[in-house]
């Protein structure tokens, strides 16, 4: 089955809505694709073809009866295995939760079903969504990592198994695998999508994200997930951003970009630096080099303090009851987190707020920050998921970020450029990204 026969999310939804295809045909095409490539890619941890086809048949029956259709009606979606699903196990990528079967869906899955999506199956996550890899390999080169922790979601989208997938990011877990696998990835503003009944790592950092093969497809899946949920303590009752509508509008003026060489710029491979410089030259006068204030030099340490202290709390029972079944890297993170003092943690939270205030000053002049998504191409080897360092600051600050798969590394592997927006201004970030993609086609 060729890639051309597997439609993207917008195309698939329109085809079902117009009667040019059925949900069953879409799901069967995904299952055929999985059958062909799953042995190599290893993107799925739970997959039930009969269950998926039964969902598709119900969707087709709804359409035949003339019932209202949601924006994702009949479209197959992959869901990372840290999101509770009532009809699939949710095992968090660890033997400690093997056989865990939730009684109800998480809010994200409920919103997907409400929008008409078909939950095709559960995609592979790293161990407890941290660093220790699962079985997934990179669809472009099976000897390389797909990134993590949303490894299965990124690989499933990149290999055309599904048009859309859900992931999460506490450090670099959406943007990094999106870059390594060559797909679009979106980490929204912190608190825009509910995390109710999603594996908790760190309340100040955890963010639900999405992956797709186009910018429009990202908006398609993200928008239905942005409804207020009072069971997530960081959500507020406010109007959701109208991403698709704003993205389609002409900007009042051509956007301005701040090319930011963050404190980890020296970790970027020379080929990555060269690719970003070429991108900046192509965009021309709309880009200016901007250096972050020196206070950001400590941002990665601030993130680590918060994340590791929260991991020690969130995974306390896993550590106490099954320490020997945890990876060495996760045990060490938890043990460091156990030693973080309350005053150190609170100081780190305050520093994160201060970083946001400094970013706001940049966004007074610029529409978006342009920076690498990762240090370089996906590393060879499956014992690591690569460094999240180029995502850390933006996750710490809770600002929206996009991976744009517009670059290429020296080994013909995908390489992403990261576009970062002001906190809460997700729709403008998408509009700015659309302008940039159009500019690159000139």
Structural commentary:
Helices cover 40% and strands 13% of the residues. An 11-stranded mixed β-sheet has the order 1-3-2-4-6-5-10-11-9-7-8, sandwiched between helices. The protein has 2 domains: 3-245, Amidase signature (AS) enzymes (Alpha-Beta Complex), CATH 3.90.1300; 248-296 and 351-440, Amidase signature (AS) domain (Amidase signature (AS) enzymes, Alpha-Beta Complex). Helix 2 runs antiparallel to helix 3 and helix 10 (299-314) crosses helix 13 (342-363). With 442 residues, it is of the alpha/beta class. It has helices spanning 9-18, 23-41, 49-64, 107-114, 151-158, 175-181, 215-222, 243-248, 270-283, 299-314, 316-322, 328-338, 342-363, 389-397, 426-440, and strands at residues 44-47, 76-80, 118-123, 164-169, 184-187, 207-212, 257-260, 287-290, 368-372, 401-408, 414-420. The protein is globular, with a radius of gyration of 20 Å.
Descriptive terms for the model:
single chain; Amidase signature (AS) enzymes; 15 helices; eleven-stranded mixed sheet; globular; 11 strands; 442 residues; alpha/beta; 2 domains
List the helices and strands and how they pair.
Blueprint: H1 9-18, H2 23-41, E1 44-47, H3 49-64, E2 76-80, H4 107-114, E3 118-123, H5 151-158, E4 164-169, H6 175-181, E5 184-187, E6 207-212, H7 215-222, H8 243-248, E7 257-260, H9 270-283, E8 287-290, H10 299-314, H11 316-322, H12 328-338, H13 342-363, E9 368-372, H14 389-397, E10 401-408, E11 414-420, H15 426-440
Parallel strand pairs: 2-3, 2-4, 7-8, 7-9
Antiparallel strand pairs: 1-3, 4-6, 5-6, 5-10, 9-11, 10-11
Helix pairs in contact: 2-3, 10-12, 10-13, 10-14
